[in-house]
Design brief:
This protein is α/β, with parallel strands linked by helices and 189 residues long. It has six helices and seven strands; from the N terminus they run ααβαβαββαβαββ. Strands 3-2-1-4-5-7-6 form a seven-stranded mixed sheet, with helices on both faces. The longest helix has 17 residues. The termini are far apart.
Length: 189
C-alpha cells in the first residue's frame, strides 16, 4: 500500500506557476513604466566586493541590480523556493552576462549557504507570506556575518506586523526604519 501525502496549496508559501507568471508579467510592466529598483537598492548600503543574498529573489529584478553594485569582485546569491524564479534569474544572467550571481533553488527555509556567508541579506516583498517567521529569521541570521545587515520590507502587511515578527524572534535589533524598508542587525547573544 502506498501512502501519498496531500499538500494543501493554501498552506504553502509557494505560489502556483500561473500566479508566478502573472506576478512576473506585472513586475515587467511596472519596471518598464516606473524603473525604481535601481534607486531603491542604492539605499540598502551595498558596496563593491560585498556578498549579498537576495532571499526570495523572484524573477531576479533585484538580484541583477545588486550584482551591478557589488561588482565583479562581489557575489550575489539569488535564492527562491520556486523553480520559475530560478529560471528567470538564469535568463537574466545570460541576457546581461552576469558572472557574479549564483541562483539557488531551495526547499523550505534552508538556504544551503554556509554560516556567516553574507555581508547583507535582502528579503524584499516576501516576508508577509512567511508562515514561520521565527524559523525564517533564524536562517537569515545564520547566513549573515556577525556584523552584517538584514534589509527587509513589509510587502503586503502593516509595518507594525513586520516589526512585531522581527522583534518577537529575539534575534534582531532594528537599527534603521524608512518608509521603504527596515535595516536590522543581529542581536548579540
Amino acid at each position: 500500500m502506498c501512502l501519498v501525502k496531500r499538500v494543501d496549496k493554501r498552506k504553502t508559501e509557494k505560489m502556483s506557476n500561473t500566479s508566478f507568471r502573472m506576478m512576473t508579467l506585472i513586475f515587467n510592466v511596472v519596471d518598464f513604466l516606473y524603473p525604481y529598483i535601481g534607486r531603491r537598492v542604492k539605499k540598502f548600503g551595498i558596496q563593491k566586493g560585498m556578498t549579498v543574498v537576495d532571499y526570495g529573489c523572484g524573477p531576479g529584478r533585484y538580484a541583477t541590480k545588486i550584482a551591478g553594485l557589488v561588482g565583479q569582485e562581489g557575489q550575489v546569491y539569488a535564492i527562491d523556493i520556486h523553480v520559475l524564479a530560478i529560471e528567470g534569474v538564469r535568463r537574466r544572467i545570460r541576457k546581461y552576462n552576469l558572472r557574479n550571481i549564483q541562483p539557488i533553488l531551495i526547499d523550505g527555509y534552508d538556504s544551503t549557504l554556509p554560516d556567516g556567508t553574507a555581508d547583507l541579506v535582502c528579503a524584499i516583498d516576501m516576508f508577509w507570506i512567511i508562515k514561520q517567521p521565527a524559523q525564517f529569521l533564524e536562517e537569515l541570521r545564520r547566513i549573515l556575518k556577525p556584523d552584517g545587515t538584514l534589509v527587509i520590507d513589509d510587502g503586503h502587511q502593516p509595518r507594525s506586523e513586520t516589526r512585531r515578527k522581527i522583534l518577537d524572534s529575539g534575534l534582531w535589533d532594528i537599527v534603521e526604519e524608512t518608509k521603504d524598508h527596515l535595516k536590522c542587525k543581529p542581536r548579540k547573544r
